[in-house]
Design brief:
The protein is α/β, with parallel strands linked by helices and about 250 residues long. The protein contains 9 helices and 9 strands. The structure holds pyridoxal-5'-phosphate (PLP).
Length: about 250
């Protein structure tokens, strides 16, 4: 596990990169939320990151979130001001863990999950800020609601709008916006176009909704978060740039 000094230096460097990318695109740096991805790392690392100033943490597996959050809360208390983000795809039999332990969920991708999650949230009386994951690129990932041809295909756009609006009407779910993953190992200009198309889709979706708060947009990881910020990300999900290689 990383040393506290190194972690503070990494955090500082990630923050500087966020500031520069925001400045380049004329955005306020505080319009970008850094979600520190702690998957595979122990609760002690979350505490170390908390002490360095981080407040948003991301886990991709609900079991791991359900195990880690209570341990962190025993160490820091329940009112430490931490926001827990579940960032990975959810299987329908795991919705209860998400409903019980996540504050935000970035990877909603189908109706079955909407129904189960909402039922679980009604039961436990919690609310979940939720992003709908869209598949823009079609490359290397099957995750996400299919929007690969959304500009040309009105049926695809309508399906997305219907899915988003019906999820927003379900009790317990606060629909925040869209999330996307860039394809792996692909040229920066293609990554940029995936992010740009996600941003334009988010804008289109906004135009279809009744007046309300601006939709948020979760995109960008260690290798591409600066491009994501330049293209309009409001949430970036960063692990390795903060904590080093997992399992390393
Ligand atoms: C692991 C993960 C990240 C962070 O990846 P890094 O390359 O470590 O920054 C972001 N989003 C999701 C959905 C992940 O599973």
């Amino acid at each position: 596990m990383i040393e506290p000094d190194q972690l503070r230096a990494n955090y500082e460097s990630v923050r500087e990169r966020i500031w520069s990318a925001a400045a380049r695109s004329g955005r306020a740096p505080d319009s970008v939320t850094l979600v520190a991805v702690t998957k595979t790392w122990p609760a002690e690392l979350v505490v170390m990151a908390y002490e360095a100033g981080m407040r948003h943490f991301g886990e991709n597996r609900p079991e791991e979130l359900a195990a880690k959050r209570p341990v962190v809360e025993t160490m820091l208390g329940q009112d430490a001001g931490i926001h827990w983000h579940l960032i990975g795809t959810l299987q329908s039999r795991k919705t209860r863990l998400a409903a019980d332990y996540a504050d935000r969920f970035h990877a909603l991708d189908r109706d079955k999950i909407v129904r189960r999650l909402s039922a679980d949230l009604v039961e436990n009386g919690r609310r979940l800020v939720t992003f709908l994951e869209v598949n823009i690129s079609g490359e290397s990932t099957k995750a996400g609601f299919d929007c690969r041809e959304w500009e040309a295909n009105a049926t695809e756009r309508e399906a997305l709008r219907t899915m988003f609006v019906s999820a927003a009407e379900m009790p317990g779910l606060d629909m925040a916006g869209l999330m996307t993953m860039a394809p792996w190992d692909i040229a920066p200009d293609i990554i940029r176009s995936v992010f740009r198309r996600s941003r334009l889709l988010n804008d289109w979706l906004q135009s279809q909704l009744p007046a309300g708060p601006p939709l948020q947009l979760s995109m960008g990881m260690t290798d591409d978060f600066e491009i994501a910020i330049e293209e309009g990300a409001t949430h970036i999900r960063v692990g390795r740039a903060l904590f080093g290689e997992r399992g390393g």
